[in-house]
Amino acid sequence: MKESIIILTGGGPAPGINTVIGSITKAFLARGYRVLGLHGGYKGLFTPNPSYTEIDFVMADTIFNRGGSYLMMSRYKPTEEDYAGNFNHGLFLDNNIKLLVTIGGDDTASTANRVTKFLQARNYKISNIHVPKTIDNDLPLPLNTPTFGYHSAKAEGTRIATTVYEDARTSGIWFIVAAMGRSAGHLAIGIGSSCHYPMIIIPEMFNKTKITVDKIIKLSISSIVKRKLMGIPYGGIMLSEGVFHLLDEDELTATGVKFTFDEHGHPELGKIPKAQLFNDILEIELKKLGMNVKMRPIEIGYDIRCQAPISYDLLYCTQLGCGVYELYTRGESGCMVYVDTIGRIKPLYLKDFQDPKTGKIPPRRVDIEGDQAQGIYKHIVQFITPNDYEAAREYLSNPEEYDFHKILNW
Q1: Tens-place pLDDT, residues 353-391
Q2: Is 56 a catalytic site residue?
Q3: pTM
């Protein structure tokens, strides 16, 4: 029987998944391997009747430039019982599978690390290589190398946010735009700065103070008043959903939000209308201040995950797919495939990234003190400064409390 490899995709969709699948398939088929695609993420490894498809060249060539994932995804997290007795070793033996390729973000990578340890402990001769994927851009790759899917999602998010901003200008209103990003603000600051939004709120901003709903609202009002002083009655506030992760329980309870949680214990932020929530709170505060400002909420998230990849990700994901074959032939396992800035393929070992206490791979956050972020907050984002205090008293009795730097303790 031919030697085979099997590919699974975990977590949420990202542009470029099919490019990775197609590129891996083409590389291995050319060397005489069979390529299997496993549906259902990790769940497919721990069930007696997994759903899988043999991928041929025509299929790979058909899907490689499409959005979404040809392989059905899931956020399934294997349990202790799964590892103890449910691993479908027969799937690998019956199909002569020598390599398991996992495609996913931080949770999928953390599980890949655990699966590697499991395979080694059982002395199963199965290699495991992970391909880092997430539109959140929060896997800690060296030299700020992006995770695939981020640039495509950012490009589509920018298109949407630009249209929204034009609506704001045309209609003389303000929009609150909430962007995906479970624990990091890469997508929000990437989209917001590309569109020159006058306020961008991400979790990393609160590096010197505790995050509260009140501070988020004051930052928003600071920008609205600053624009009023400039004679501009419109604008946009870009908000990262990751701010929810830093709000304490009392703050969350006060908002009235009731969270449900996914298999990895994360609040399912996609179910919560974050922009609507803050829009409603902000409107109430503006009315208390006697300001008549029209607000509208917009969510950016699920509408950017399954778009077709842009040229950047088409090439990048092709390199990653080819890199899987290269690392496998070098005998590598238990690693992520990494393409450096000059195109060299390197392994990044999962064990080197995991937190020794939790076993998870900690997310990469926006470097809020770096030149890129600081440039945006110094020159593009707009807010009240001490020079505005006197003029701002027309709208605020206490403009000092709406000073951007004082709110954040910067």
Answers
A1: 888 877 778 889 999 999 999 999 999 999 999 999 999
A2: no
A3: 0.91
Residue 36 contacts by C-beta under 8 Å, 6 or more apart in sequence?
4, 5, 6, 7, 52, 53, 54, 55, 95, 97
Pinpoint the alpha helices (H) of 148-273.
150-171, 186-194, 213-229, 243-246, 249-255
Structure tokens at 200: 């961008």
Place of tokens 């989209």: 191
Q: Which helix (DSSP H) or strand (DSSP E) does residue 93 occupy?
A: helix 89-94
CB atoms within 10 A of CB 2: 8
The closest of 83, 102, 141, 78 to 362, measured between CA atoms, is: 141
Q: Which of 107, 136, 388, 403 is catalytic?
A: 136
Domains, the chain? 4-148+309-352 (3.40.50.450), 154-305+380-408 (3.40.50.460)
Of 49, 65, 58, 60, the residue nearest 24 (C-alpha): 60
What are the backbone angles phi and psi of residue 54, rounded to the nearest 5°? -85, 125
Amino acid letter at 139? Answer: L
Q: Give the tens place of pLDDT for each residue, 90-140.
A: 999 999 999 999 998 878 888 888 888 898 889 999 999 999 999 999 988
Per-residue confidence band for 251, with pLDDT thresholds at 50, 70 and 90 = confident
Picking from 10-19, 80-89, 228-237, 388-397, which range would have the lowest pLDDT averaged per residue? 80-89
Tokens representing residue 150 in the block = 């981020």
b/e per residue 292-310 (b: at least 16 CB within 10 A): ebebbbbbbbeebbbbbbb
Phi, psi of 140 (to 5 degrees): -80, 65
Distance of alpha carbon 224 from alpha carbon 392, whole angstroms: 11
Q: How confident is the model at residue 248 (pLDDT cuts 50, 70, 90)?
A: confident
Element (H, E) at 376: helix 371-379
Mean pLDDT of 274-278: 87
Residue carrying the six token digits 């902000």:
282
Distance CA 223, CA 70 (A): 43
Give alpha helix (H) positions in 266-350: 274-288, 311-329
pLDDT bracket for residue 76 (50, 70, 90): confident
Closest CA to 361 of 130, 21, 126: 130
